[in-house]
Amino acid sequence: MKTALITGATSGIGKATAKLFANQGFKLVICGRRTDVLEELKVELSRFTEVFALNFDQRIFSEVEKAILSLPENFKNIDILINNAGNAHGLEPLSEGRIEDWDAMMDGNVKGLLYVSKLIIPGMKAKNSGHIVNISSVAAKQTYANGVVYCASKRAVDVISEGMRLELTEFGIKVTNIQPGLVETDFSKVRFKGDEDRANTVYQGFKALEAKDVADAISYCVNTPKHVAISDLTIYPSAQSEPRTVYKNL
After folding, report:
1. Dihedral through CA 231, CA 236, CA 237, CA 240, nearest 10?
2. 108-129 pLDDT, tens per residue?
3. pTM listed for this prediction
4. Which of 213, 209, 204, 217 is nearest to 184 (CA)?
5. 5-32: b (≥16 Cβ within 10 Å) or e
6. Is there a catalytic annotation at residue 144?
7. Domains of the chain (ranges plus CATH)?
8. Which entry of 115, 144, 150, 236 is annotated as an active-site residue?
9. Which end of the chain is less congested by CB atoms within 10 angstroms, N or C?
10. pLDDT in tens, 8-67
C-alpha cells in the first residue's frame, strides 16, 4: 500500500484528492493549518484507509520540519507527494500591492513547496522511487494585469518542477506539474479577503472546473504504469481559452 502526503488537504483540490486517494486505498498523510477540519477529515477518511494528520504552516520551515520528522514509522515512507497548498491574495497593480500579500504568496506558493519537498525527497532518493505532483496554475503560462506576483509565484512552481525532473529522474522519481484554469473553490474568497459577493462573480455565467476534476487528473498521473511519466498537464474549463479569456453562457 502506497503512502501519499497531501498539503493543503483541508479544502479545495487537496481535500478532493485526499477523498479520491482514500477510496483508491492509499495510506494518507493529510496536512493543513486548520486543526478542527483536519481532524474531521481524518475521521471521515479513516473509514476507508489509514490516515495521519499533520498540522503546520508550510511557510515556516521550523514547523514543516518538526511536523514531518514527527511522522510515526508506519507513515514515514512517503511514495507520493502532492504539493497542493498555496494561495492568492489581492488583485491590484504592483504600485498598490500590499507587502503582506506578496509575502503570503511567495512564502506559501514557492518557499513552502520547497520546504516540504526538501524533507520528503531524500527518502524517495534512498529507495529510488517516488512521485511528486506540484500544483501550479495557467497563471504561470500567461501573466495578467493586477496579478503579477501570483503569476510569478506559479511560474516559479513550473521552474521548480522542471528542475526537480532534471535532478530526480535518475533516481526513479517522477515529477508532474499540473496547471489548472478556473476552479470553483475558496480560491477567490481568499484572494478577495472573504468578500463572497466579489468572489462569486468570478464563476458566474459559465461552468468552472470543480476540485474533483483536478483530483481526477492527479489520480490519472500517479496511477500510470511505471514506464509512463506525465511531465506537464494543463486543465481548462471548456469555457476558458486562456488565463484571461472566459466565454460566458457556455
Report:
1. -170
2. 999 999 999 999 999 999 999 9
3. 0.94
4. 209
5. bbbbbbbbbbbbbbbbbbeeebbbbbbb
6. no
7. 3-246 (3.40.50.720)
8. 150
9. N
10. 999 999 999 999 999 999 999 999 999 999 999 999 999 999 999 999 999 999 999 999
